[in-house]
User: Fold this.
Amino acid sequence: MIPVIDDIRAAAERIKGIAVRTPLLRNDALDEATGAKLWVKAECLQRGGAFKMRGATNAIAALAPEVRERGVIAFSSGNHAIAVSTAAKIFGISAVIVMPADAPKIKLDTTRANGAEVVTYDRVNESREAIGKQLAEERGLSLIKPFDDANVIAGQGTVGLEIGEEIAPDIAIVPASGGGLCSGVSIALPNARIIACEPQGHDDIARSFVSGKRERNAPGIRSICDGLLTEEMGDITYAVARQRWERVAVMSDDAVRRAMKFAFQRLKIVLEPSGAIGLAAALEGGLDLRSKTVAIVASGGNVDAETFTKALAS
Amino acid sequence: MIPVIDDIRAAAERIKGIAVRTPLLRNDALDEATGAKLWVKAECLQRGGAFKMRGATNAIAALAPEVRERGVIAFSSGNHAIAVSTAAKIFGISAVIVMPADAPKIKLDTTRANGAEVVTYDRVNESREAIGKQLAEERGLSLIKPFDDANVIAGQGTVGLEIGEEIAPDIAIVPASGGGLCSGVSIALPNARIIACEPQGHDDIARSFVSGKRERNAPGIRSICDGLLTEEMGDITYAVARQRWERVAVMSDDAVRRAMKFAFQRLKIVLEPSGAIGLAAALEGGLDLRSKTVAIVASGGNVDAETFTKALAS
Assistant:
């Protein structure tokens, strides 16, 4: 079921005091480069380093207490893992996280440091959905889906709610893969034109917009944007995308690296590749943003030193 | 003349809409590492990338219009240069900035990009104060002092005012060199114990606290903290220091690099060395912060990729 704005308002109440209200940053150089009035929603400064904390917290808070006590399970390439393990720790319940074996080390380490049990799988040959489902059934755990869930989408939508409380954007530029964040933001900002961003080579959403049916990515395709490698959108998020998203900006790894460097030099924030893709789209995506009020969601900052250093050298 | 808290409130009104209100960040790992409830005032997210924008804007705004129109001059190792040139650009007046020839390239470039005329000097053999004074007299420019000025101190004090509007810190940890920021913050937070931080080898304030008289640094001493290399405190700031600052934490370059890395990994903000010294003091300064509410001023983020990369490798 597609959440409505009141679900997002309810989520905002539930996550208060757990997730933080992140700042909306302005920068002169960014405005000069684009001719727009740009605002960057710095979700890298969110607890856990990414927006995912919002959806995970809302989904866990919405469970019946006796169900919640049995623990939760999640499958994730990284930030959802950190978010669910952090939220589980706060609620004092156990968490099992199914993660790809090649997930960034910082994300594996952080999830374990939160006290979660990490189960790894092979991203190319195994299905995380199948592994997650089986473990959930065996142990009586509640599956906290990464995106295709009304409570998760409503939680991520609080990003848009906070943006709308401070500015009235003409355009919102949002990273998308599973589509939970972009769906939530588009529901929270009904008057904004929505531009979704995805990595080159992993552009199922752009292809879906062309073909008119839900496309998927071949498993195993890599991109620097490790947080945007979902195989396909969910039922709910695809429905929202068709209703609300105007277009998709497909960005190269190099453009994303330059955006990470821009964020370092000008905004003074640390963005992971997936978190910088919206900034890359604003700077190099060929979008006409002139004279518009634009919100860019910088979705996270969980990047290892090696990847970041390489971006700074670009 | 030492400014009072009403001067800081007046400064807050003057700089509104020019300087931004920066967020106060919390982090679980930081609290766990110190046993305190720590808040980081992220002045790296300030316009121009450092707190200096506050004092420069307040000082320029306080000039009589007919005086302001003739232009301003400043001498600075970097962030004050960027701040004065940015504020001058906003007020539509000309600015001459006297900078050491070995200032970080990013700071020289940014100052020039703001339209200021940059005059370089030799940090070891020349006095920036003398050069600045001569140019000011020749061209009828108003000298915007970097720290020893009531309007500048009041402007920097708005950092403390904003902290005090959100939390009631037992302790404030603040970088100090000329002492403008630390003086302003200590006046704005009359109930907080003030810990000033300065770099090893450039510890004139710590030595002043021991000797009971204002000490100075031999010219030419280097530190990674390029923003904290003032030769000695000013008359006003030294008077405030004696009245209000409780102690001085002297930190090594290596501790500062580790704090920069911590800020990257955990807080997801970019800190220049001088901006990270307060975090270094909280993490490695041997301070007993247990169970205290502590505000750390992270004063700026204008660091080049090479220095930052080296910190990440530490």
Remarks:
- The CA atoms of residues 48 and 194 of chain A lie 26 Å apart.
- The radius of gyration of chain A is 18 Å.
- The first helix of chain A runs from residue 5 to 15.
- Chain A has two domains: 5-49+150-312, 53-143.
